[in-house]
Design brief:
The protein has 172 residues and is mostly helical. The protein has one domain. Helices cover 74% and strands 0% of the residues. The chain has eight helices and no strands. The longest helix is centred in the last third of the chain and has 24 residues.
């Protein structure tokens, strides 16, 4: 893999992660949504919101690259086939949970979308650096090595923390 490609991936990951962190943690902790203000009268909206945060936490875990790789890995696939399988799985998981955006903050939803986009970007960029005859195992190995060498690329942990933080604000 070319050094320029690694730098580009790292910069994109840092920008996405940093931007997400800035937006999510710069909000006032005391800011409450209308639904939260009504929580004393009716707890149903809060329960629905909590369920949405739970589902998005599961989504975040399912599209985290290490978990995704271990779940969809199949012997005998080419790198291109594995690339297609990984990105399609991310799209499917995301689309399955797309309606949850109406129950969570715009910042939380933006963080989940950024995670989806970053993971697909990493998969596609690393896959494009492999030779045409590379195996799916080669791609998976490269993805895991990238994540181990650059902890900032693990945006899924940041997104999970943000979702947990917002869910805890609802119940406090």
């Amino acid at each position: 893999m070319d050094t320029i490609d690694i730098v580009i991936i790292a910069v994109v990951a840092l920008l996405l992660g940093g931007g997400t962190l800035y937006v999510l943690f710069s909000k006032n902790d005391n800011e409450k949504t209308t639904t939260q203000g009504n929580a004393n009268n009716d707890t149903t909206p809060v329960k629905v919101q909590l369920q949405a945060y739970e589902r998005l936490l599961i989504l975040t875990d399912r599209i985290a690259l290490p978990n995704l790789i271990s779940r969809v890995n199949q012997a005998g696939l080419t790198a291109k086939e594995m690339q297609a399988m990984l990105t399609q799985n991310i799209k499917d998981e995301f689309n399955y949970n797309i309606t949850q955006q109406i129950y969570v903050s715009a910042d939380a939803w933006s963080a989940v979308k950024n995670l989806k986009e970053q993971n697909m970007l990493i998969i596609n960029q690393l896959a494009n650096t492999l030779p045409p005859n590379a195996s799916g195992l080669d791609l998976n190995k490269m993805l895991l090595e990238y994540l181990m060498s650059d902890k900032k690329g693990a945006l899924h942990e940041v997104v999970s923390d943000v979702l947990s933080y917002e869910a805890k604000k609802l119940i406090s």
